[in-house]
Amino acid sequence: MEQEISQKDALSIVICQESGADMRIVSKVEQGIEEEQVPAYLISSSGNSMELARIAADSSLLGIGVGVDKNGVVTICHFKMPVNRPVLQVSAQKNPSVGKIIGANAARLFKGIPFLKFEEAQNAVNNL
After folding, report:
1. Using CA atoms in the order 101, 90, 74, 110, what is the torsion angle rounded to 10 degrees?
2. Is the overall model pTM greater than 0.85, yes or no?
Protein backbone atom coordinates (compact mmCIF):
# COMPACT_ATOMS: atom_id res chain seq x y z
CA MET A 1 0.00 0.00 0.00
CA GLU A 2 1.65 3.21 -1.18
CA GLN A 3 1.57 6.17 1.19
CA GLU A 4 0.83 9.65 -0.09
CA ILE A 5 3.87 11.88 0.29
CA SER A 6 4.86 15.04 -1.53
CA GLN A 7 6.79 14.76 -4.78
CA LYS A 8 9.77 16.50 -3.14
CA ASP A 9 9.82 14.00 -0.27
CA ALA A 10 9.35 11.10 -2.69
CA LEU A 11 12.67 12.09 -4.33
CA SER A 12 14.45 10.27 -1.51
CA ILE A 13 15.04 6.82 -0.15
CA VAL A 14 11.98 6.27 2.00
CA ILE A 15 12.37 4.61 5.40
CA CYS A 16 9.17 3.01 6.69
CA GLN A 17 9.15 2.24 10.40
CA GLU A 18 6.73 0.14 12.40
CA SER A 19 5.26 1.62 15.57
CA GLY A 20 7.52 0.52 18.40
CA ALA A 21 10.63 0.23 16.20
CA ASP A 22 13.91 1.06 17.93
CA MET A 23 14.53 4.70 17.05
CA ARG A 24 18.29 4.18 17.45
CA ILE A 25 18.15 1.80 14.48
CA VAL A 26 15.91 4.12 12.45
CA SER A 27 18.25 7.06 13.15
CA LYS A 28 21.30 5.04 12.10
CA VAL A 29 19.62 3.99 8.84
CA GLU A 30 18.79 7.63 8.09
CA GLN A 31 22.34 8.70 8.98
CA GLY A 32 23.85 6.06 6.67
CA ILE A 33 21.70 7.21 3.74
CA GLU A 34 22.44 10.89 4.28
CA GLU A 35 26.19 10.33 4.71
CA GLU A 36 26.14 8.97 1.14
CA GLN A 37 24.67 12.35 0.05
CA VAL A 38 21.23 10.89 -0.72
CA PRO A 39 18.10 12.31 0.93
CA ALA A 40 16.00 10.16 3.26
CA TYR A 41 12.35 10.53 4.26
CA LEU A 42 10.64 8.77 7.17
CA ILE A 43 7.09 7.35 7.18
CA SER A 44 5.25 4.92 9.48
CA SER A 45 3.08 1.90 8.80
CA SER A 46 2.47 -1.58 10.16
CA GLY A 47 3.84 -4.94 9.10
CA ASN A 48 7.12 -6.84 9.08
CA SER A 49 10.30 -5.27 7.74
CA MET A 50 9.77 -6.81 4.27
CA GLU A 51 6.26 -5.34 3.99
CA LEU A 52 7.46 -1.99 5.34
CA ALA A 53 10.36 -1.87 2.87
CA ARG A 54 7.98 -2.62 -0.01
CA ILE A 55 5.65 0.21 1.12
CA ALA A 56 8.70 2.49 1.30
CA ALA A 57 9.98 1.48 -2.16
CA ASP A 58 6.52 2.03 -3.66
CA SER A 59 6.39 5.48 -2.03
CA SER A 60 9.81 6.54 -3.32
CA LEU A 61 10.33 7.95 -6.81
CA LEU A 62 13.83 6.44 -6.55
CA GLY A 63 12.22 3.00 -6.16
CA ILE A 64 14.26 2.10 -3.08
CA GLY A 65 12.82 1.63 0.38
CA VAL A 66 14.01 0.54 3.80
CA GLY A 67 11.75 -1.12 6.35
CA VAL A 68 12.45 -1.25 10.09
CA ASP A 69 10.18 -3.38 12.26
CA LYS A 70 9.78 -3.55 16.04
CA ASN A 71 11.92 -6.71 16.15
CA GLY A 72 14.95 -4.78 14.87
CA VAL A 73 14.94 -6.35 11.40
CA VAL A 74 15.98 -3.93 8.64
CA THR A 75 15.20 -4.67 4.98
CA ILE A 76 16.10 -2.92 1.71
CA CYS A 77 13.70 -3.36 -1.23
CA HIS A 78 13.98 -2.22 -4.82
CA PHE A 79 10.87 -1.73 -6.95
CA LYS A 80 12.23 -4.01 -9.70
CA MET A 81 12.73 -6.97 -7.36
CA PRO A 82 9.97 -9.55 -6.82
CA VAL A 83 7.68 -8.71 -3.91
CA ASN A 84 9.17 -11.17 -1.40
CA ARG A 85 12.80 -10.82 -2.53
CA PRO A 86 14.66 -8.17 -0.55
CA VAL A 87 17.94 -6.73 -1.73
CA LEU A 88 19.24 -7.08 1.83
CA GLN A 89 17.74 -8.08 5.17
CA VAL A 90 19.60 -7.97 8.50
CA SER A 91 18.77 -7.93 12.19
CA ALA A 92 20.10 -4.83 13.94
CA GLN A 93 18.43 -5.61 17.27
CA LYS A 94 21.67 -6.44 19.11
CA ASN A 95 23.71 -3.75 17.36
CA PRO A 96 21.78 -0.65 16.18
CA SER A 97 24.95 0.62 14.42
CA VAL A 98 24.31 -2.01 11.73
CA GLY A 99 21.46 0.28 10.66
CA LYS A 100 24.03 2.81 9.43
CA ILE A 101 25.60 0.21 7.14
CA ILE A 102 22.17 -0.78 5.80
CA GLY A 103 21.31 2.88 5.17
CA ALA A 104 24.60 3.48 3.37
CA ASN A 105 24.03 0.39 1.23
CA ALA A 106 20.52 1.55 0.31
CA ALA A 107 22.05 4.82 -0.91
CA ARG A 108 24.81 2.93 -2.74
CA LEU A 109 22.16 0.83 -4.48
CA PHE A 110 20.67 4.05 -5.85
CA LYS A 111 24.11 5.42 -6.81
CA GLY A 112 25.09 2.14 -8.50
CA ILE A 113 28.29 1.69 -6.50
CA PRO A 114 29.46 -1.38 -4.52
CA PHE A 115 27.97 -2.07 -1.11
CA LEU A 116 29.97 -1.64 2.05
CA LYS A 117 30.99 -5.03 3.39
CA PHE A 118 29.66 -5.63 6.87
CA GLU A 119 33.00 -6.76 8.30
CA GLU A 120 34.91 -3.72 7.01
CA ALA A 121 32.14 -1.30 7.86
CA GLN A 122 31.65 -2.81 11.32
CA ASN A 123 35.38 -2.49 12.03
CA ALA A 124 35.23 1.18 11.03
CA VAL A 125 32.22 1.72 13.31
CA ASN A 126 33.94 -0.08 16.20
CA ASN A 127 37.06 2.08 15.81
CA LEU A 128 35.18 5.38 16.22
Report:
1. 50
2. yes
